[in-house]
Amino acid sequence: MNDCLFCKIINREIPADIVYEDDLVLAFSDINPQAPNHTLIIPKKHIARVSDLKEEEAHLMGRMIMAANKIVQEKGLANKGYRIVLNCGKDAGQEVFHIHLHLLSGRKFTWPPG
Ligand code: 5GP
Ligand code: ZN
What we know:
Layout: H1 5-10, E1 18-21, E2 25-29, E3 37-43, H2 58-75, E4 83-85, E5 101-105
Antiparallel strand pairs: 1-2, 2-3, 3-5, 4-5
Zinc ion is lined by residues 1, 4, 6-7, 46, 98.
């Protein structure tokens, strides 16, 4: 996908503060953080929405969660708590159409979310 912002970050065409990378997943700091720590975790494969995920791509979601676990362990946040958010589509406020987990930590969160 040539015009996808997150694909451009994967291809190093746009700079980002990369905090984790493996063969399938990339994680980088959100440019407009909503918590003291706000990391975006994306698959390297372009998939627009979680609702577009195919059966054979399901393992990518597991790998994204495992990346979140590694980042959380590294930052020592496992016991403090954190939030993982996945927005899908317009009503959820998805703005970038390349699947991403928001990993938010460093403050207390409320429920229900806004
Ligand atoms: P969404 O609303 O689609 O769930 O989240 C998109 C996220 O991408 C937002 O939190 C937004 O701040 C972040 N974002 C948008 N453009 C950029 C960018 O160029 N670089 C980085 N690092 N994050 C971005
Ligand atoms: Zn993309």
